[in-house]
Write a structure and sequence with these properties.
Number of strands: 10
Shape: globular
Radius of gyration: 20 Å
Pfam family, one: FdhD-NarQ
Structural class: alpha/beta
Subcellular location: Cytoplasm
Distance between the termini: 51 Å
CATH architecture of one domain: 3-Layer(aba) Sandwich
Oligomer: single chain
Helix content: 25-40%
Family: Belongs to the FdhD family.
Largest sheet: 6 strands, mixed
Keywords: Cytoplasm, Molybdenum cofactor biosynthesis, Transferase
Number of helices: 9
CATH topology of one domain: Cytidine Deaminase, domain 2
Strand order of the largest sheet: 6-5-7-8-9-10
Order of helices and strands: EEHEEHHHHEEHEHEHEEH
Function: Required for formate dehydrogenase (FDH) activity. Acts as a sulfur carrier protein that transfers sulfur from IscS to the molybdenum cofactor prior to its insertion into FDH.
Length: 261
């Protein structure tokens, strides 16, 4: 038998996960499983990613109330945003119908976005120790593990802020929500999780110039990043960073470290 040398964690040391009910102007919109931290940031980032609000200015109030089964987020948004909410609910209702609705569901899953301006390349040499620098920012992960992180970086690669959640989408929503509440937004975001197409969409919609991932991206994620002029950088555990950048970036800036595809 293999001896057990480490103690089992106590229940209160494990990551928290609760049902978060998102109510908008008194209407239940969604229930998300999330880590119950930074929920104001989550509310703003989630509604922004859903296309319901255009920014922090569209949110008038957020009330968080514990319930028997989790947490209720009552969010009051500007009346002008209610049309977008109604349109989204109609699309969701249609997605459960007949064949043509499947096409509409696909369009909703991969919505068309406005391409970003071509940004100056990011110096990937500043990212070689990124994993080590991220670790102290992941306070919850150090205690319980099993948590994803999303971070904001400045132009020199220094970490400005971090948000954590058991869900990788939630972590990025929290970070984007926090950034939307700041007078100046970071142009570079980083994620510790697998980089799929949904996270590319969130980063493009936010307006990030660069997205850095500690996990390898999917083929679709790379294609979407190139389509929308988002520079996607994968930082492997041992090898040098891999930069997926639009050929337009290399044509415009002529930087030798930009890999175009």
């Amino acid at each position: 038998m293999i001896p057990i040398t480490s103690r089992l964690p106590r229940l209160d040391e494990l990551v928290e996960e609760v049902a978060v009910s998102v109510n908008i102007n008194g209407i239940n919109h969604a229930v998300m499983m999330a880590t119950p931290d930074d929920l104001d940031d989550f509310a703003i980032g989630f509604l922004f990613g859903e296309g319901i609000i255009g920014g922090n200015h569209d949110v008038h109030d957020i009330q968080s109330t514990p319930s028997e089964h989790g947490i209720v987020l009552d969010i009051t948004i500007a009346n002008r945003c209610l049309a977008a909410l109604g349109q989204r609910k109609r699309r969701l209702a249609g997605a459960s119908g007949c064949g043509i609705c499947g096409v509409e569901a696909m369009e909703h899953a991969l919505p068309a976005l406005t391409p970003l301006p071509v940004a100056a390349p990011f110096d990937t040499g500043r990212l070689r120790d990124l994993r080590e620098r991220i670790a102290p920012w992941q306070c919850k992960a150090r205690q319980s593990g099993a948590l994803h992180a999303a971070l904001a970086l400045d132009e020199r690669g220094a970490i400005l802020a971090c948000r954590e959640d058991i869900g990788r989408h939630n972590a990025l929503d929290k970070l984007i929500g926090m950034q939307l509440r700041q007078p100046v937004r970071a142009a570079t975001l980083a994620i510790t999780s697998r980089c799929g197409s949904e996270l590319i969409h969130k980063a493009v919609q936010f307006g990030a110039a660069h997205l850095i991932s500690l996990a390898s991206p999917s083929q679709l994620a790379v294609r979407l990043a190139l389509k929308y002029n988002l520079t996607l950088i994968h930082v492997p555990r041992s090898d040098a960073p891999v930069c997926y950048a639009s050929p337009r970036a290399q044509d415009q800036f002529g930087d030798s470290h930009v890999q175009s595809y």
